[in-house]
Amino acid sequence: MHGTATAGLYGGNEARRLQARWPSAGATSIRSIRALAPLLDRVLVQRVKAETKTASGIFLPESSVEKLNEAKVLAVGPGALDKKGNRLPMGVAVGDRVLIPQFGGSPVKAGEEEYQLFRDSEILAKINE
């Protein structure tokens, strides 16, 4: 987990040891993702999982499967406020497929599923296919 508070407080090797011992260090854990309502310009996404099975039927271990930068938007906040107090429109909507940065965002865990919160401006692109 790059970009967590743990990595900033401790050196790289120490942070890796802590995260190996407590993998959810730095992640917020909730019971249900439906309990989470993003505020302002925040966007809740879930990364699209890479295929763990090859075309020939061989299953790949999770450690060898690279994380994709594609995600599905699950919830969006109402939008940030400008200096006059007017809401700025969000660039994405629920259901959109988007490209997200490989690192960053705020990790959130609900059960065994992992999600991330990004600011609308951190979303790299919308996939229109």
Automatic annotation (TrEMBL):
Family annotation (SMART domains): Cpn10
GO molecular function ontology, one term from the record: protein-folding chaperone binding
CDD domains: cpn10
Pfam families: Cpn10
This protein's UniProt keywords: Chaperone
Keyword Lyase among UniProt keywords: no
Gene Ontology terms: cellular component: mitochondrial matrix
Keyword Iron-sulfur: no
Family: Belongs to the GroES chaperonin family.
Function: Eukaryotic CPN10 homolog which is essential for mitochondrial protein biogenesis, together with CPN60. Binds to CPN60 in the presence of Mg-ATP and suppresses the ATPase activity of the latter.
Protein name stated in the entry: Chaperonin
